[in-house]
Amino acid sequence: MADWNSLYEELENLKKEGRYRPLTVWDSGSDTWMTLNGRRVLQMSSNNYLGLTGHPGLKEAAIAAIREYGAGSGSVRTITGTLRIHDELERELAAFKGTEAALVFQSGFTANQGVLASILGPDDVVISDELNHASIIDGIRLTKSDRKIYAHKDMDQLEAILKQSGGYKKRVIVTDGVFSMDGDIAPLPAIVELAEAYDAFVYVDDAHASGVLGTNGKGTTDHFGLNGRVHIQIGTLSKAVGVVGGYVACEQVLKNYLIHKARPFLFSTSQTPAVAASCLAAVRVLRQSGELIAKLWDNAAYFRAGVQALGFDTGASETPIIPVIIGNPAKTMRFSDLLLEEGVFAQGIVYPTVAMDKGRVRFIVTAGHTRADLDFALNALERASRKLGE
Ligand SMILES: *Cc1c(COP(=O)(O)O)cnc(C)c1O
Fold first, then answer.
1. Active-site positions?
2. Start and end of every Aminotransferase class I/classII large domain (predicted)?
3. What is the pLDDT of residue 353?
4. Is the pLDDT score of 18 beyond 80?
5. Are 270 and 106 in contact (CB under 8 A)?
6. What pTM was estimated for this model as a whole?
7. For a disulfide at 113, which of 139, 341, 379, 380, Cβ 3.0-4.6 Å?
8. Kindly report the CA angle at 90 between 71 and 262, in degrees rounded to 5?
9. For 127-162, how does the pLDDT look when each residue is reduced to its tens digit (9 = 90+)?
């Protein structure tokens, strides 16, 4: 008889290694302070960089869209699922990014899958940073193109690969804008220079950079003054934008192509009206003012300096993603648990997501944190560290 024994075994192994994690169920919505098992906990693991999940304007926009259009969109985009609100969102995103066009997907994950699988064929090669996000890796797996991986941010190796790959029709260099585990930024100026020297396309996934880096949160391309020199910019609407969804900002010709080829776009229902409307409201908030982003960076600098002053290793962090590197996986997870006892939620991230000796508790600072919140977290770090040493 069929049974799930092999699954039980694998789960038992995870438990033995201290890597088995039941879901954390929160009693309140995404916010700076949240309720967990009846206790107030300082949230330092959410991607809600600007606190937009609870923004009154976004909530009102969602409610108004439900009243006007209903709860669902009724179909995929290519049949009856493109409502006025979806079209408006894409126009706003293109204006925000300063590109000819933008195309929205259900998530950043499906945006990567849809775009990579559509543009890469058997005569092409994709050249990818070793630390790129899982959705890029999966998107590449869907293609028949050749694939080359370069060591993290290693521009010499990228150039060597470009030199050896003259015979391909298309060459596409793919990188995260901000790397989610270390909080470091891709060397985009060097990547763009190499791409221009070797006639390659540049593809940047700005999931952790849109709404965070660049003027008004336009992203990594703008941050480095490379507007017009990056061919494909992926963004998510799920992190700093505070809702859910993904998009590609690109030339009109690529958008037209994707409308006919990208499978998540063709075969999965479009965003609900409430989602599209609240994303639209969020992008308008970003375009109106850089105030929240300035606060975010101020908080990040303050917290990183505080963590370093306590003697912790924050690795390569240069953004609001601030890892506290502990090392051993079990010790890392224990440290995260101790922090929770002190009232701070910061996720432990261990092998195989990161190297065996590079387990870390990852803090994400947001614009919603006050100085008092950050000091609370720093005190918790100090106390938890003392307990970990005992
Ligand atoms: C989070 C993330 C995604 C996925 O975005 P979702 O909108 O959550 O699906 C894609 N790429 C990178 C680099 C990410 O960090």
1. 180, 208, 239
2. 41-381
3. 87
4. no
5. yes
6. 0.96
7. 139
8. 85
9. 999 999 999 999 999 999 999 999 999 999 999 999
- Give the Cβ contact number of residue 144 at 10 Å: 10
Report which of 234, 295, 244 is spatially closest to residue 270, judged by C-alpha positions: 244
Kindly give the distance from the C-alpha atom of residue 70 to the centroid of ligand 1, in angstroms, as a whole number.
Answer: 27
Tokens 């940073």 found at = 129
Place of tokens 């508790």: 361
Pocket test for ligand 1, best of 46, 116, 135, 248 (most atoms within 8 A of CB): 135
Q: How far is the CA of 342 from the centre of ligand 1 (A)?
A: 30
- For atom 15 of ligand 1, the residue with the nearest CA is 207
Both tokens assigned to 51? 């606190």
Between CA 268 and CA 270 the distance in angstroms is 7
Q: Which helix (H) or strand (E) holds 323?
A: strand 321-327
CA of 239 to the centre of ligand 1 (A): 8
Q: How far is CA 283 from the centre of its chain?
A: 16
Which pair of structure tokens corresponds to residue 14? 């995870």
Is there a cis peptide before residue 264, judged by omega within 30 degrees of 0? no
Task: Please report the beta strands in 140-227, taking only residues with DSSP state E, as ranges in sequence order.
Answer: 146-150, 171-176, 201-205
From ligand 1's centre to the CA of 309, what distance in Å? 31
Domains in the chain with CATH codes:
19-50+290-389 (3.90.1150.10), 54-286 (3.40.640.10)
- DSSP assignment letter at 58: H
User: Of all protein residues, whose CA lies closest to atom 1 belonging to ligand 1?
Assistant: 207
**pLDDT tens-digit map of 304-355:** 999 999 999 999 999 999 999 999 988 999 999 999 999 999 999 998 888 8
Average pLDDT score over the chain: 96
What's the pLDDT at 86? 98
